[in-house]
Amino acid sequence: MGIFLGRKSKRQSSGAPQGSIPEENNANPVDLQKYDLYNKGINSMSNEKFEDAIRSFELALRLDQKYVDAWIKKGYAHFHLGEYNSAISAYDRALEIDINNVEPWNLKGLAYYRLKNYDKAIAACEKAIDVNPNDAMVWYNFACYLVLSGRIDEGLEGLKRSIEIDINYAKKSVRDRDFESARAEEGFRRIIEVVVLESIRQGYNYVGKIVWITGMDRQDVEDAVMRLTMKGLLVRKEKKTITSKEEYYEITQEIAEKIGYAKQTGFLKRNKVISAPLQELKDISEIIGMAKISVEKGDIQQTLEALERLINPAHHGSAMIEQFFDQHRDVRLYHIRIKDRGQEYLNSHKADLINLLSEMDVKVRGNIVSSSTGE
Length: 375
Fold this sequence. Notes:
Layout: H1 29-46, H2 50-63, H3 68-80, H4 84-97, H5 102-114, H6 118-131, H7 136-148, H8 152-165, H9 168-173, H10 186-201, H11 207-214, H12 218-230, E1 234-240, E2 245-251, H13 253-259, E3 261-265, E4 271-275, H14 278-297, H15 300-311, H16 317-323, H17 325-341, H18 343-348, H19 350-374
Antiparallel strand pairs: 1-2, 3-4
Helix pairs in contact: 1-2, 2-3, 3-4, 4-5, 5-6, 6-7, 7-8, 10-12, 11-12, 14-15, 14-19, 15-17, 16-17, 17-19
């Protein structure tokens, strides 16, 4: 299903939000009144009084026809009432004022999705992606609409892009019925395998536990476990009880040494820590050094290759997410932007990227010392 909750408009993402009262020295009675009406509408929406919210937003818009957030929230209220065409009209008014605002493009796509007009939903997402190609939510919605329109290969590529930006969309996608027609595809099966493998790595090593933590169908989990076992990535084990035997799975030692594993620590072994192996930390440090050299030289291909090895779960992405989450996020965004914008972007952001990589290296080397001391 398309995602739309919890978004801020572009104007709210920096500085004071449009819904807040401006500073006294800049305020005038009309501004105070429109902000008050806007906030009244927001409060009505939070209480699911959408008709009251629409009236408040309309009164605010009488005072300021260019109040973008009021148009967006008005559309949002119409959407919740099932008035999808009215919602689209409100989003269009917001876009007439601010065409580079991702939120109304994304929400417009969602309204078309509810109308089952997938071609127009796709077109709206394409506009949003043009504005911000690093928005994981938009890529995810885009993937949903493509799959629903029968363009499964393109949809899986969009889903892959979403997951590259935010790994959490992998777990979200395996529960989403919009991808039902893509489940038999090899690309989607690999996404399911990644989610199952990560669950086991986190210590959820029984099929029932994986079903519970991921929300996936039991059959999908069992199929993925079977494929991972056949590939030599998992080992099937049994735990005997007085009355029965219970099956569970562990990551093979070779794979665990590459991607890390869950360790029980603390009193009664109840605290779980994901530990990347010492050799992997050393490998990450070496790659960071190579990346810094590539960035300094302005070698875009080698830079992309080095960053890819740091963010891709098939290489060191999983360890980076677990132990250096913020740095993984920043490196991933640099990778996407360099890939999209090319040499000019790399050249203009050399200093920032080298600084980020240097800070990462300090943290990684600190963990190497800690791991060496603990062994």
